[in-house]
Every structure is written in structure tokens, then in C-alpha cells.
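Protein in question reproduced for absentees:

***
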Amino acid sequence: MRLHTSLAHNKARQCNNRKEQSPTSWSLLICLNQVLETFPRMTVLRMRHECLRRRGNGLLMADVRSGIAHIHRKMKLKRFLLRYYPPGIILEYEKEGLLKTKSMDLLDLTPGTNPDELLAEIRRSEPLVTECRADQVKQLILRLQQKQGQKDQPRFCFSKSLKAHVLPLTNVAFNKSGSRFITGSYDRTCRVWDTASGTDVHILEGHRNVVYAIAFNNPYGDKIATGSFDKTCKLWCAETGKCFHTFCGHTAEIVCLAFNPQSTLVATGSMDATARLWDVETGEEAATLTGHTAEVLSLCFNTVGNQLVTGSFDHTVAIWDVASGRRVHILPGHTGEISNVQFNWDCSLIVTGSMDKTCKLWEAVSGKCVATLVGHKEEVLDVCFDLRGQLIAAASADARVFSSTTHQCLVTLEGHDGEISKICFSPQGSRILTAGSDKTARLWDVASGVCLRVLEGHTDEIFSCVFNYEGDTIITGSKDNTCRVWY
């Protein structure tokens, strides 16, 4: 079973490509790279340099491990946090008076995984998990497996229809807990809703044109970003509805946005062919990402937050280094406009959908195209990974599910009468939700491709659909000016 500790696996792959290094030095560097996420970069680089300098003098692996153990003695593990989707364990620790976190991603965990073998693997790769903590970690693994083993699936019966907007909706989004959701609209407002009661808690007013792109800063959920055709992005307090900042600088409509995982930056994409990064704290522009020659219609941070991918109507995809604002790779190959882009959870792959009727799978480190996913007869309007990064779903006139490893089409989802504009996996990965121009949303079984439920009631095409974090509530937003809640 693969155990992913954030960044370590990517760094290890880079070391593996250095053919000139001996097996011994490669092992030493892997050992050092496993702690890059936790320790100050200069500390690790000095250790790496010393490792290579002394390579000819027979430096033993024990020497390096001793150095790493010395650094770990300066760290104090505070607690474990459990993440169900995708499965993982978060380590909260104290270092030099600062509280920090790192994640152990258990993306290959299944109910059949041997917990003792996995625990042994975790202990080998993570020194913070000491012998006295071993039983606690095993219990967390068992809780994750128990969650995976739950078979009860919600029926998603219609609950309520909410109409407050006076013009069509553009997008919907949940906060992490699912207690609130937001809707953007052509009526120039964003509304904050209480999910349980269906009441609108706040009306976020101030934009002078369509509110097209919206997002919570999950997992925190205390801020909301709205992007508008008025060329601005606004940052709001989710609790009070107060506007913190208005980000000005784009010269055309803003059509996509995202928070970085740390909630310190907002990225916006615009019809002016640029993407921009904005500082959440100060409200200042952090970087302008230039290089595309046509509209930037989609963007996505990786789960570490150090890279951003953008997709453009110029038929290309670009990968950017967030810290410097530098373009790392340009990914040519599509022959049509890019409709959506997304990183997988472990940051190793990027999937892109295009109006050229294909999806492409790219290696994030090298920018190399590893597969072209074909079969659609019409434009691909949306594409996404499941949370584990093992499956890809693409929406066109039909919907298809592909394997991210074999690149084969596993099932075709047929039933909509018209194009499918949105597609997403449930957090568990066992269901797919689609929204179409036929005024319906549909729930599908991933394994069989069977349509389990048709969500009917909207009187015009559905633009947006989303699951909450637990996967037991759905919101659909429509051109009919309403959103519907399904449990």
C-alpha cells in the first residue's frame, strides 16, 4: 500500500530520476526528502549537501537517521486529526513554539487493508508516530475502515426549493460542514443560506454585474470569495456578510476563482487572458500570471498550495509556481478551448477537458501528457478526479468514467436528453452527480453506470450541482432562478 506524506512522494520521484547517483546516495536523499515538509528547507539542504559531500567516505544511513532523529526531538506531537475523505490522518505538532500540521494520506486504504501492516509502514516513514502512539494510530485506521464499510446510501428525495434570486443562478457551493451554502446569480448578488432551515442568512451585495464564480475558503469556512463580470473579486466574512476587500486589477470579466489550501491567497481567472493572486490578509495583489493569449476559464490549486494550473481558450494549460508567479510548464496538445482543469489529491497528475471532445492526463512534475482520454462525440464541458485520484469523470453529451492508471473508459453514463454541463463525484467516490440542459440532475452508481435517481423539478437547465462533505446532501442551481436541496 502506498503511504503518501505530503510532498515527500513528489520529492522522492524527483530524486529517482537522477540516474547519476548511486543507490546508497539515492536512499540517503529519500530519507532526507521525507522530512522536507516538516523541517526548515535550509536545514534539510545542508544535510543533503553533507550527505553528498561525504558520499565517497562511506557515510552510513545511520548517520543521516541520527541527524533526522535529532531534529524530531525538537518537535512535540500534540494530537491526531482524522480525515474521512479522502482517508488520511493529520498530525498536529509543535515546533519552536509554533503549531504546525502535516498529513499522512492513506489513498489506497480499503476495508480489507491489514491495519497492522499499514501501521508498521507508517511508523517506518513517520518518526512522530512513536511506539507509545502506535495503538492510537491503529484505532484511527480502524475508524477510517469502519467509515468506508458503511453501506447506507441516502435516497436524495426532494427537500425544498429556495427562490430569492430574481435572475438565473450561476454557481452553488457548500462550506466544509455543510451547514451553509452559497449561490451566485445574474442578479449581481451572492446569497448565504442555512442548509437545514432554507433561510437566506446574508445577501452579499456590492457587485455591479453578474456574480459568476463563488467559493468558501474550506476547510475553514469563515470567508467567501465572489468573482464578477464587473471585473472585480470581493472577499467577505461568512459569519457577518461584511466585505473585507475588493480586488481590483482585471480588465475583463472574472469567470473562475479558488482559495489556496492555506486560505492565504485567492486566485482569479479572467476574460482578459490573465490569472491573478490576491493576498487575503492585506487585500493586495500578490502576482499577475501572464502568458495565455485568450480567456482563462478555469484554474485549480494543488492540495499543497505551491502550484496553480490554469486552462485557457487559447487551447493550452499552464502550471505556475505560486511563490514566484513563474510559469513552470505550458501544456500544449488540445486543439480546442479548455473547459476545466484539476489536480489529483497527491499532486502528481492534472486532468484537462476540452472542446476538442477529449480529456488529457498530464504528469504535474514534468508537464508530459501521459494519456488522451477519447470516446466523447461532443465537446467535453467538465472533468474531475474522485478524491483518491483513481478515477476521472468527464461530461459531454454523455458522461464517462475513466481509470487514471489504465486510462481505459470503465463506464458510460447515458440518460440525459441534452448536454451535461457539470459532473462531480460523491466524497466516498461511489456515486456521480450530473447536471444537464434537460432540467434534471442525475445520480449514478460509479461501478455499474446505472442511473439511481433522476432529480426532477427545475423548470429550466441546471447550471451547477454539488455534494456536501459527508455526501448526504445535494444542492442544484438552475436558470429558473431557484436552487433545490436534496437529502
In short: The CA atoms of residues 24 and 186 lie 61 Å apart.
